[in-house]
Amino acid sequence: MDLKLLLISTLLGVICYSSAQQEGNECIKANAKSCGECIQVGAKCGWCTDPEFLKQGEATSTRCDELESLRKRGCDGAKVENPRGSQQVLKNKAVTNRNKGAKKLRPEDITQIQPQKLTLSLRSGEPQSFNLKFKRAEDYPIDLYYLMDLSYSMKDDLENVKNLGTQLMLEMSKITSDFRIGFGSFVEKTVMPYISTTPAKLLNPCTGDQNCTSPFSYKNVLKLTSNGQEFNTLVGQQQISGNLDSPEGGFDAIMQVAVCGEHIGWRNVTRLLVFSTDAGFHFAGDGKLGGIVLPNDGKCHLENNMYTMSHYYVCIIIHNVLYYTTGGSNPEFTTAKSMMLKFLFTLFNLTSLSSEVILENSKLAEGVTITYQSRCKNGVTGEGEMGRKCSNISIGDEVSFTISITAKQCPKMGKPETIKIKPLGFTEEVEIALNFICECDCHKNGIEDSEICHNGNGTFECGACRCNEGRIGRHCECSTNEVTSEDLDKNCRKDNGTDICSNNGDCVCGTCECKKRENPEERYSGKFCECDNFNCDRSNNKLCGGHGRCECRVCICDANWTGSACDCSLDTTTCLASNKQICNGRGTCECGTCKCTDPKFQGPTCEICPTCPGVCAEHKECVQCRAFGTGEKKETCERDCSYFNLIKVKDRDKLPQPGQAFPLMHCKERDANDCWFYYTYAVNNNTEKEVHVVETLDCPAGPDIIPIVAGVVAGIVLIGLALLLIWKLLMIIHDRREFAKFEKEKMNAKWDTGENPIYKSAVTTVVNPKYEGK
């Protein structure tokens, strides 16, 4: 895998691009002269190979058009060249599902990315997409190389590192069962600080009685090994060296560790470099005094595990760095071995090594673009630059990406290209071979020097002549030196009084080639370009009513349509009434619309009769609820009674009167309170129902007080009857009491019973003298 160097941030290039969709028909605008040119314009373009396809006056370039337009113009689908892109997966080994403790696999047998190899055939403007799967394998091998600064200031740190090997092997066994460790050291370039230094100083650069080894640039002490004890032994034998200036030559050492794979022992697995120092590094220009000005050549220069070209090259590292700082001028750092182990193990932990997966691709060919869409953990998706990456990915997690590759044009010579896509920091990659579709299939069958092309003056391919150099015309019938001949121009006039090609084209080889309009859908045609497809009658602002095509300024209507603008439908289904009769048997169907012959009936199907009996009663409840808020339908008025337009007027004189353009019905209805309301019902010329209603009710005099008075009178009568009965009862009681009192006084009275002398009886007795007693 690529060398992982952490802490120095990775610089990512952001590719920004914008695209603008060309208005109109880009196929015609391209003015393509051949099928190959046509299909490179865009994915929508096709080429008609029918030799008889072109009409008089149409240029060869009009064979190139959108597929639907070619069909409408009469080109059979079997004669349309429209090659499509494709893809083929060549290697598709599944990602490895492996747990720690399972059977040990060789690094080359572990797969973390799928597929591994495929081929794409690209048509201009047509993207080809495929899915890429990535899974960080569990128990994946790790190679770690510990690169340490052995200048004098690192003396205490060297003591801590001497026993690091076995402990680090123990900790790393928690992550992987296949771990190897190596060790290297560096001090300084062996020229710059010592130009004026004595030989004795070079042998022992330390001050006082300190015993130090000679300075050196970089030494590969221990090749990568799985033996932790060997690491401890060799590191324990190392000695501190010295330096006269603060910066160190660490970047020279990093470069050699990166490029000397065989000496270091790197495998194609996770590669980690731990860079331990307490000092800065040299910048470009620091070596001028010692004559070191050339940039590093990026090659390995180790002899007997020692770097031999430090005095020759300036090194600038542009990778990521796993950088362990041991102190120096920063008091917050510690040199304790336990902290070093914790630091390293944290970096090796799942969340550090595999927290983010970023896809990168190799350089793309000119005109080729690539886009990414990520599908990460927990349903998180990303597009654009965010589509390249997935975050918070742990070992064993699986993520996928949709990658789309589009060619905007064919590269020079149309040669295949190869691009590679891989996760940043891994060597596993997807190899994609790109083949470009730059010619039509019919190009292979072209007939060179064809007789069709004016006695061999061109190649007949894809239904048209591709003229040889110096020849022009639809059939290559003219030389470029003959195009301005006056004799040829005469053949382009309809008669002597007309313009060349009706002023709508150019005369080429005695034949009119009609001009193209700004709107690519509009075309001139005809032998003299006297015809066009845009000057026909219109209906509803549509050419030929949208139901036909314009040919030579005349509408050719589609089936079931007629008329100069194809605006008259022959379909009678729109005229069927509810009784399945055309226009309810009271009219005729003309252009899909009923013409009612019975003046009483109107409406779309002659079913509405505003003046027929029963109309007023039919609409009474709805008029009452909408105009006055009363009646049986007042609760459902909005739902049931919104089928007409209501217009209120002040009095009956304002109601519409008979004699207007459409019939109407005058109605007079009475509500539950014996009040009358007046309205008219009609269907206007737009088949809209209209109701005009007088806004006030016509009620009898005092319609509101009569019920009240009647109630009061009834109450008074009842009260009077009650009072009369009470009075009568009292009178009876009173009379009985007086009579009883009279009788009592009569009995108690003591009167003289003598006869009144002046009393004279009122009875006179007369005897009949003739009465004899018989």
UniProtKB/TrEMBL annotation:
GO CC annotations, alphabetized: cell surface; focal adhesion; integrin complex; lamellipodium; melanosome; ruffle membrane; synapse
A GO biological process held by the record: cell-cell adhesion
InterPro entries xrefs: EGF_extracell, EGF_integrin_1, EGF_integrin_2, Integrin_beta_N, Integrin_bsu, Integrin_bsu_cyt_dom, Integrin_bsu_tail, Integrin_bsu_tail_dom_sf
Domain PSI: 26-76
Keywords for this protein: Calcium, Cell adhesion, Cell junction, Cell membrane, Cell projection, Disulfide bond, EGF-like domain, Glycoprotein, Integrin, Magnesium, Membrane, Metal-binding, Myogenesis, Phosphoprotein, Receptor, Repeat, Signal, Transmembrane, Transmembrane helix
Alphabetical list of Gene3D superfamilies matching this protein: 4.10.1240.30, Cytochrome c1, transmembrane anchor, C-terminal (1.20.5.100), Laminin (2.10.25.10), ligand-binding face of the semaphorins, domain 2 (3.30.1680.10), ntegrin, alpha v. Chain A, domain 3 (2.60.40.1510), von Willebrand factor, type A domain (3.40.50.410)
Family: Belongs to the integrin beta chain family.
Name of protein: Integrin beta
Species assigned in the record: Hucho hucho (huchen)
